[in-house]
Amino acid sequence: MGRARLRRAYYDRFAHVYDRFVAWHSGTGSPAMRTQMAARAAGGGERRALDLCCGTGVATRALAARLEPRALVVGLDFSHGMLARARGSMAQADAAHIAWVQADAAALPFGPAVFDVATCAYALYELKGPARTAMLREVARVLSPSGRFLAMEHEVPLRLLPRLLFFLRLAVIGAEGARAFRGGELQELERVFADVKKEVVSSGKSKILTGSKATAR
Fold it and tell me: Domains, the chain, ranges and CATH?
């Protein structure tokens, strides 16, 4: 089994405990944290939104709840197991509002300038450097000229056990370049987007990175 298949199999199995892991790591409820990102993503008038590396769909559903009823939200992930959990948790009212797509975030199956906003929760650190760069460029490609990108990430935990598990998980998933990204995430986003900002959210254990395509280089 190749490394890509092993990585996908890991996430298929990790889907069963993923939400509990994120909630424990962030020190607060996982839906509450992602709702904060969704609130910032819904600036007004967005008709199409893309949630990348959507996992079990918590952020996707939070985003859909914030946008106007006619908006379309696409949750995209490469893991069948994650998407199965996402579909299983979807309320009937969301059925026409959310589409789930299995695909690689570094090779998005969409045309240019399709989405008004794109989000990504707790996934950028887990991508290898070249894959993360490709993903960010793909996000810029599929965003409309005035589109925005928002990413939520963990801060490095202060408590010893969560800190050890944080670095252990990065080692297990083989996220080369993650250490450099943690120290230079703003600079990496600035290579693709404009008006890049970082905001530490209320719990102090997560952060939201934002960028705009409007004047991106």
Answer: 3-212 (3.40.50.150)
What interhelical angle do 30-41 and 18-26 show, nearest 10? 80
212 three-class SS: strand
Lowest-confidence region among 53-57, 175-179, 199-203: 175-179
Do 153 and 206 meet the contact criterion of CB atoms below 8 Å apart? Answer: yes
Structure tokens at 13: 């199995």
CA nearest 115: which of 138, 82, 86, 90? Answer: 138
Degrees, nearest 5: CA angle 169-123-40 = 140
The percent helix, strand, coil of the chain (3-state, each to 5) is: 45, 25, 30
Phi, psi at residue 112, to the nearest 5°?
A: -75, 150
| Site of tokens 């900002």 | 197
b/e code 108-131 from CB counts within 10 Å (16+ = b)? bebeeebbbbbbbbbbbbbbbeeb
Distance CA 145, CA 156 (A): 33
Per-residue pLDDT tens for 125-169?
777 778 889 999 999 999 999 999 999 887 665 566 555 666 665
**Locus of tokens 């800190």:** 163
